[in-house]
Amino acid sequence: MRAAQLRPQPTLSKLLSCHNPRRLFHGTRKTTPSIPEPRPWVPDVETFFTLIGRGLKRHASKFPSWEALFSLAPAEFRAIGIEPARTRRYLIRWIARFRVGDLGPGADFRFVEDGVALLRVASSATNDGAASCKCVVNVPPVPAAIAASSSAKILPSTLVRPIGYTISGLRTIQGPFVRTLPGDGGAVVKITEGMWEDKRGRKIDGGERRRTEVRFKRRIAERKAAAEEEALRKM
């Protein structure tokens, strides 16, 4: 009889040599969150909380600096007293949006003084005599006398053209939270509470879970009231 052939068993050293050592370090390295630079429209923590609304402005004193706000981990916001949980999640979501530049109106303003940005209508001059192109630009604040005397209305083409602000008619500036100045002084946009706030929906009839029950009880009460009124009418 032929002896049964035995298959060689893999040794432990071979099994370890086949293992990818990079998997041992998977998830052990933690990246430090990036700290974005403040913007002219958002220079500090208090202004940022004012823009995003939801009453977060009262928590601004808990963050001593801009770096302190963007260096905290999500779990640390609860430790410093950002409550309730939905407000904490809302703040964390807006911090992530600020890092990627997904912001609201006014974020691209370059010239801001005391929370106010000045907008004017600019005309681009052409050499061939064609009609000039008009656009809304954010300009540095100038004294009222100089602004009234500047009748050329041709501003440098390097000025910022903010997103969301357009011209209606001849020289009327339209856009979010814009306030037109008298005469031909342009318009201003002032930092306002809740400019960037994500508005929450209103619960109607108790929300989704209780809506059927609330409306059913309401119909019963209406039928009962109608029956009582009919009974009183027949008396």
From TrEMBL:
Locations listed in the record: Mitochondrion
Record's protein name: Small ribosomal subunit protein mS41
Gene Ontology annotations for the cellular component aspect, listed alphabetically: mitochondrion
Keyword flag Signal: no
InterPro entries: Ribosomal_mS41 (IPR039603), SAM_Ribosomal_mS41 (IPR019083)
Keywords: Mitochondrion
UniProt source species: Ophiocordyceps camponoti-rufipedis
Cross-referenced Pfam families: SAM_Ribosomal_mS41
PANTHER family (UniProt xref): PROTEIN FYV4, MITOCHONDRIAL (PTHR28235), SMALL RIBOSOMAL SUBUNIT PROTEIN MS41 (PTHR28235:SF1)
Domain Small ribosomal subunit protein mS41 SAM residues, every copy: 45-101
